[in-house]
Automatic annotation (TrEMBL):
Keywords: ATP-binding, Helicase, Hydrolase, Nucleotide-binding
Superkingdom field: Bacteria
InterPro entries to which the protein is assigned, alphabetical: XPB/Ssl2_N
Name of the protein in its database record: Helicase-associated domain-containing protein
Any one GO molecular-function label of the UniProt entry: helicase activity
Domain Helicase XPB/Ssl2 N-terminal per the UniProt entry, residue ranges: 304-425
Length: 564
């Protein structure tokens, strides 16, 4: 048993509940820790594994100051933080168990206070283009996840199939997981049971301008930075990020990922230079998008509609218009300014709640060239065919599929791709236990002109949106644990500590030098081979007299383990 545990236990017992909870959280203690008293807590906090985990979280300055304190110097600016972590005692001294762990750590060099060099005009322009491309790719990722949640592996990254899907949509394979991380950091998406789903915040973000989109993501990126690379409300020079947590073995990979994300957002160039808008954020100020926006084309609100059923945007289309246009077209991300109308894409828009009239009105207002006749025909023909298959709720929570075209209904009945729906013939309809909205989307994906209707036959919009629900994070309270520790805390801490020392010695069959108070007030030292403890008495063999002795614990003044 460490002799350092006793003063720490006394200190813990004297701490307020608030300070105790802060310490337990910072040290990664589980609220259901099987501790009986503060001595248990102190021993756990001083275990080498616990100390190693905690020192791995220290910043460069904290690690350096702890190292200096372990060598007898003052802990400097980190003194208070290290005391709060129980890595220093209240006097600023390093407990022996902590000193032993620190002695095995590599020396920590001084921090490099260098400021990143300013980017050249060419580097600044390139960083702006990179930021624009990143925001666009992030929007593509969110739009894909909004319609169909993206599958994740156990580590939280996208599956190989989803990576291929994103690559086909024009997103660079090497940036997919960095984009996913940025989306999660900004609160635009989150992992939910092995899938990535968008949040309600993503809807507003997708409808915002580039400047707002970029500002939201970059400010969230800054807010989510680990404390080792933070400087006030800003951050230290990226060149120093790799050494920000010197005793964390996983930190170099984390730092590398953060620098990749910073470059994706245009906050750093590949050479390590800094654009002017990044300097503002690094200093802790609000994002200034003006210098960035000035280097990018202005967003537009018009497109050219062509006879070949394509729409060409002569510049970056305003996001709200882009989102709606994408919902009725096939969009080629590799050629961001191109959109193609197909019967399937228009049918999808109709299922989402659009009508022939709303599509015509929107496209007429958007077009610089009017509404081409081929597109007018496509809208009319698709709208006329839309609703030929009607999907309605059925008794018992099932679904009923009907159609005026008996041949079309027969084709649905034998379609192998629809077998998972379990459609069964019932008179002039097909029934299934699957929900109506799921059936409607399955038919639509199978290129059938399906319309979801309610019980009265009125069409129902079925926009395919998979938004993450607000996470319900259970509050992990340490109150029960702290209450139990206080309940079992002995008023006489000296007696409690003595009991623990004796118990540990008996279990280890240790040899003890025991100072015993005699009836006449004098003291006598005995060397015993501890063999038992119970009923308030210590049993052991007296080495000098070679006899078994039983001593009242209340008469023992001190105990010391004898090492041979």
């Amino acid at each position: 048993m460490s002799t350092s545990a006793r003063p720490l236990a006394v200190r813990l017992a004297a701490s307020s509940d608030e300070r105790l909870e802060a310490l337990l959280r910072a040290r990664g203690v589980r609220p259901d820790a099987p501790w009986n008293d503060f001595f248990d807590a102190a021993e756990w906090l001083l275990e080498p594994a616990s100390i190693e985990r905690t020192t791995s979280t220290l910043t460069r300055q904290e690690a350096r100051d702890l190292q200096q304190a372990a060598r007898g110097a003052d802990a400097g600016a980190s003194r208070s933080a290290l005391i709060d972590l129980a890595l220093l005692d209240d006097e600023g001294a390093v407990p022996p168990p902590v000193a032993a762990v620190v002695a095995e750590r590599a020396d920590v060099p001084d921090a490099d206070p260098a400021v990143p060099p300013a980017a050249s005009d060419a580097e600044t322009a390139s960083a702006a283009e990179r930021a624009s491309a990143t925001v666009g790719a992030l929007a593509d990722l969110l739009l894909a996840a909004r319609n169909t949640p993206l599958a994740l592996v156990a580590s939280g990254v996208l599956t190989a199939g989803e990576r291929r899907r994103m690559a086909e949509s024009g997103i660079e394979t090497g940036t997919v997981d960095d984009l996913r991380a940025l989306a999660v950091t900004a609160g635009l998406a989150r992992a939910d049971e092995r899938v990535l789903v968008t949040t309600a915040a993503a809807e507003q973000w997708l409808a915002s301008s580039f400047a707002v989109r970029w500002a939201v993501v970059t400010e969230a990126f800054r807010s989510g930075m680990p404390r080792g690379i933070r400087s006030g409300t800003g951050w230290i020079a990226p060149a120093a990020w790799s050494g920000a947590h010197p005793w964390d073995a996983s930190w170099p990979q984390v730092a590398e990922r953060l620098r990749r994300e910073a470059q994706l957002l245009g906050l750093e160039t590949p050479s390590g230079a800094e654009p002017v808008w990044a300097a503002t954020l690094r200093a802790g100020d609000e994002a200034d998008t003006a210098p960035l926006s000035a280097l990018l084309p202005s967003e537009i609100d018009k497109v050219f509609l062509q006879n070949d059923l394509t729409a060409i945007a002569p510049g970056p289309l305003h996001p709200a218009l882009d989102n709606r246009l994408r919902a009725m077209t096939q969009h080629d991300s590799a050629q961001a300014s191109s959109y193609r109308f197909t019967a399937e894409s228009v049918a999808r828009a109709l299922v989402d709640g659009e009508t022939e009239a709303s599509l015509t009105e929107f496209l007429s207002a958007l077009s610089l060239t009017g509404l081409p006749q081929p597109l007018t025909y496509l809208l009319a023909q698709t709208a006329a065919r839309h609703g030929l298959v009607r999907v309605a709720p059925y008794e018992g929570g099932g679904t009923r599929v009907t159609s005026a075209d008996a041949g079309l209904l027969a084709a649905i009945e034998v379609d192998r791709g629809l077998r998972p729906l379990g459609l069964l013939r019932e008179g002039d309809a097909l029934i299934t236990r699957v929900g109506a909205e799921t059936v409607a989307w399955a038919l639509s994906d199978g290129r059938y002109p399906a319309t979801l209707v309610d019980a009265d036959g009125a069409p129902v919009a079925t926009a395919r949106r998979h938004l993450a629900e607000s996470p319900t994070r259970p509050h992990t309270s340490f109150a029960p644990l702290i209450a139990r520790l206080r309940e079992h805390h002995e008023v006489d801490s000296d007696a409690a500590w003595l009991d623990r020392e004796l118990d540990a010695a008996v279990r280890a069959r240790a040899v003890l030098e025991v100072e015993v108070a005699m009836p006449d007030g004098s003291s006598r030292a005995l060397v015993l081979e501890a063999s038992g403890l119970g009923g308030g008495r210590l049993r052991g063999r007296d080495r000098a007299a070679d006899v078994e002795r039983t001593l009242p614990v209340r008469s023992i003044r001190s105990v010391r383990v004898v090492t041979d």
